[in-house]
Model the fold of this input.
Amino acid sequence: MSAMTSVQRLTLAKGLNQGLRKAMEDDPKVVLMGEDVGKLGGVFRITEGLQKDFGEDRVIDTPLAESGIVGTAVGLALRGYRPVVEIQFDGFIYPAFDQIVSQVAKLHARSLGHLKLPMVIRVPFGGGIGAVEHHSESNEAYFAHTAGLRVVAVSDPADAYWMIQQAIRSDDPVMFYEPKRRYHERAEVELDEAAEAPLPLHRARVTREGTDVTLLAYGPTVKTCLQAAEAAAAEGKSLEVVDLRSLSPLDLDTITTSVKKTGRAVTVHEAATFLGMGAELAALVQRECFHHLEAPVLRVGGYNIPYPPSRFEEEFLPGLDRVLDAVDESLAY
Amino acid sequence: MSEHLTEDAPPAQPIVDARHLQHHETTVQPMMEHDITDGGPDMVQFVDGDGNRLETTEANAPYAKIVEDMTSEDARSMYRDLVLVRRVDAEGFALQRQGELGLWPSLLGQEAAQVGAGRAMRPQDYAFPGYREHGVAWCRGVPPENLLGIFRGVNHGGWDSNANNFHLYTIVIGNQMLHATGYAMGVQRDGKVGTGDPDRDTAVMAFTGDGGTAQGDYNEALVFASVSNAPLVFFVQNNQWAISEPNYKQFRIPPYLRARGFGFPGVRVDGNDVLAVYAVTKAALDAARAGQGPTLIEAFTYRMGAHTTSDDPTKYRPAAELDIWKEKDPIKRMRGFMETKGHADASFFEQIDAEADELAARIRKACQEMPDPDLRTMFDHTYAEEHPVIEAEKAEFSAYLDSFEEAGR
Ligand SMILES: Cc1ncc(C[n+]2csc(CCOP(=O)(O)OP(=O)(O)O)c2C)c(N)n1
Ligand SMILES: [Mg+2]
Done:
C-alpha cells in the first residue's frame, strides 16, 4: 500500500467501524455482541456491514439484557474468544455493573493470573445530542475507580481506528468510551502502521502546545478545549491541551511534564466534578508538580445533579465560556 | 496478537473464517423465524379484522361474559379513546418532525392494547408504564400535554404520579417491573386486597415490551410477584420488534407461556382487539384484587411505525409485514364491529373525528407555548433536603449567568 492510499478521511464513527473490521480480519476470535449491532449495525451504525461480512456467529444481536450481554461475554472470553460488547447508551450499562465490577474486573486476580478476560466494553458516552434521559451520561469514573479495568476514551477518528484495535488486543478488560456527539467529526487517518506508528493505548497526547495553562481533557471535551485554546490565543493566552486518552492508567509523565512547564492546570470533563476524573488529576498534579504550580488545579465539569433535560444541557456541559473563565481564574493567582 | 488462555485448551467449534467472508458456515443453531402475524389458537379474540364478532372458542370462552355485559355506550367510549389516542400520537409525531420535540416513540398500531388495558383499570389501581404508553396515560386521565415535556427536553416527566395513579415513564428497560411489584406488595400490606369491597381492593399494572422480557429486572419481578402473590398484572405488549430485533432474538417460548413457569397464569390476547384486551385485563385485575395473585398478559400486536422518530425500520424489516398488519388495524376493526352491531351511527364517528381535531390543536398549542425552563431551576429537586454541594453549585451557576447579563454578552 502506498503512503498516499493508506490515508483516509474518516468520521470518528467510521474509524471505529474500520478498526473493528480490521480487528475481526486479524483475529477470528474477535466477536461483537450487543443490542441491534447486527442487521441494523447499531443505533449509531458503528458495526454497520460487519454482520453481513462476518456472519451472525461473530456479530451477535443479543437479547435485550445488559447483564446478560456482559456475563455471556465473560464466558466467551473464558472459552478463548475476544468479545467486543456494545452498550447501546451510557445510561444502560448499570444492569451490567455487577458483572463488570464483580467478575470482569476481578477474575484475573481471583484466578491468580490463570484466567484472562480479553474483552472490550464499548460505551457511547456524554451529552450534547438533545437526547432524553439516560442517553447522555458520563460514568467513566465508576470504572476508573474499579481496579482490574482499563479505561480509555477516544476523541478523534485516528484514535478511534487505532485504539479500538489496541484495546481488543489487550489481555485485560478495557472500558472503551466513545464521545457520541463527536461521532460525525472527520479527520485524516493514517491506516498504515509502517507509515506512522500509532501511540500506545495508555499514553496521553499533547494535542496543542502552549505555555500558560494546561487543559486536561478526554473524549468530547478535547474539542471544546481546542476551541478554547484558539479563542484564548486571540487574547494572547497560550493554552496547552492534553488529550488524556487513557483514564486508567493515567499517563502521569505526559501530564506532569506539561503542568511543570505551564505551572497551571484546568481539568475539563462532562462528568460531575465531585469525585470525577478531575479530582484524581488534581490530587496527582498537586503531589507531583507542587513546586511548579502557580495556581491550584481547577476543575470544570458537569454539575452534581442528574444529567438534566436537554434544554438545559448547553449550560450544564462545560463549554467554551466556562473553560475560559477557569483559565482566567487560574491566571489570576 | 497476544496469546490468551485457550491456546492449549481443546479447539473451539470451527467458526467463520474471516477470509471467506461470503460463506458463514455456522455451528450455532439460532432460533428460527416464525410467523409473526398469527397469534395461534391460544390467543383470545372476539372481533376479527373486518369487525365480525367471532364464535366462542376455548380461548375466549372464559371472557365472553365480560364482553356480553358491555353496553353500546361502553363500545362508543372505547372507540372514542382509540381515535383520540391515535390522534395524540400522530400529533406527537408531527411535532417531532417540525422540530418542536426532540423525539417521539409512536404507539401506532398499539392503541387497542393500551386502551383495552387502561380502561380495565379502576381509579384506585396503579400503572407503571415504559415510554410508549401514551394510550394508558390517556385512560388514566393524564393530560397528553404532560407527556410532551420529556420529549421536548424540558423535564424528565415531572407529573405527579399520584394524581392519576400513573407512574413516570421509565426508559431503562425493565426497571419499572420491579417497582410495580413492590408497589403491589405495599398494597397487600395495606390490607387492600381480597376484602370484597370494589372501591377498596387494588391492583397494579406493569407495562413493558417483548424486548423487555429478556431483561433481568423483568424476570426478577415475575419471581417476586409470584412468591408474594402480589396483586399485579404484567402487561407485555408484544409488538414483534425491539428496535431491530425480532421476537426470536429475545425468546424461544412466548411471554404468556413463560408465566406458568414462574407460578402464575399467562394469557395471550389479540392486542388489536380492544374488546378482547379489555375483557382479559379486567378478569386479571379482578383476580388480583381478590387476592388470587398475578397474571401475565401478552398483547399480540405490531409496531406500525418506527421504533422512535430516530429509527429507520426499512433497514431491518420487510414492508410486507406492515401490509398484513394494516388489515388488522384496531380502529378499523372496532368501527366495523360497531357498525355491524348498530352501536353507533355515522354522526357519532364524525363527532369523534372532530373532537380529535380539537384535541390535536390543543396539544399543538400547549407544546408550542411550553416555556423553556428557567435555567436556574436545573439544580432543584436533586435532593429532598438541603445539600451543600448543590447550594454551592447553584450559587456559582447563578453568578455565571449574571456575568453574562452584566456584560451584556
Ligand atoms: C436497559 C436498557 N437497554 C437498552 C435500552 C435501549 N432501548 C430502548 S427501547 C429498546 C427496545 C425495546 O423493545 P421492546 O421491549 O420490545 O419495547 P418496544 O420499544 O417495542 O415498545 C432498546 C434496546 C434501554 N432503553 N434500556
Ligand atoms: Mg417491542
Q: What stands out?
A: Chain A touches chain B through 62 residues (CB under 8 Å).
